[in-house]
Design brief:
Elements lengths: L4 H4 L29 E6 L5 E6 L17 E3 L7 H5 L7 E3 L2 E3 L11 H11 L15 E5 L5 H7 L4 E5 L10
Parallel strand pairs: 6-7
Antiparallel strand pairs: 1-2, 3-5, 4-5
Length: 174
């Protein structure tokens, strides 16, 4: 994935040029790095062009993949962990060594969101207490969602949530 001169905003001739990229040119393959970084185009002269990588912050770790990242993330990848201390009584996030865990209970699901979802499926008489009811339920409207964690838990059941927060029950910004 190369960057053309038109994308970098440089032009070696006196002619005007389009702001849209030109036809794709074959670019040499660049080996992938273990740690992701952001590519930036820097032009030092009209004949030379550098593609630079911004290194990640000190201590950065490769993110945990979904769906595990819904429940746990690396503490080193979060620059501000003061929210964990402020909200420790609400069971939102808990510091556990090098990781920060999201227990899934929060203030609304004291026994966990998965158990709550299973109870809803049971009340609706869905087969095997599965909320998606063999693909018959695909979208859920979550009104008064707070931080919308309910929608994150529904994703593992192939159900999408439309989360609306008319007011913030936790007195935080939405």
């Amino acid at each position: 994935m190369g960057i053309t001169q038109a994308q970098c905003g440089t032009n070696t001739s006196n002619e005007s040029y389009s702001t849209q990229p030109g036809p794709a040119e074959p670019q040499p393959r660049v080996p992938r790095r273990r740690v992701q970084a952001v590519a930036i185009c820097l032009v030092r002269s009209t004949k030379r062009r550098f593609n630079c990588l911004i290194p990640p912050q000190h201590g950065y770790k490769v993110p945990i993949k979904w769906p595990k990242s819904r429940d746990v993330v690396w503490k080193a990848n979060i620059p501000h962990t003061h929210l964990a201390k402020e909200k420790s009584d609400q069971n939102w996030m808990v510091e556990a060594g090098e990781k920060i865990k999201f227990p899934g209970g929060g203030t609304h699901f004291h026994h966990g969101a998965d158990k709550y979802i299973s109870n809803i499926a049971n009340i609706l008489n869905f087969k095997d207490n599965n909320i998606n009811n063999e693909g018959m339920l695909r979208i859920v409207l979550d009104v008064g969602c707070g931080v919308a964690s309910f929608g994150g838990y529904l994703l593992s059941s192939n159900v999408i949530a439309m989360s609306l927060a008319p007011n913030d029950v936790h007195q935080n910004q939405i």
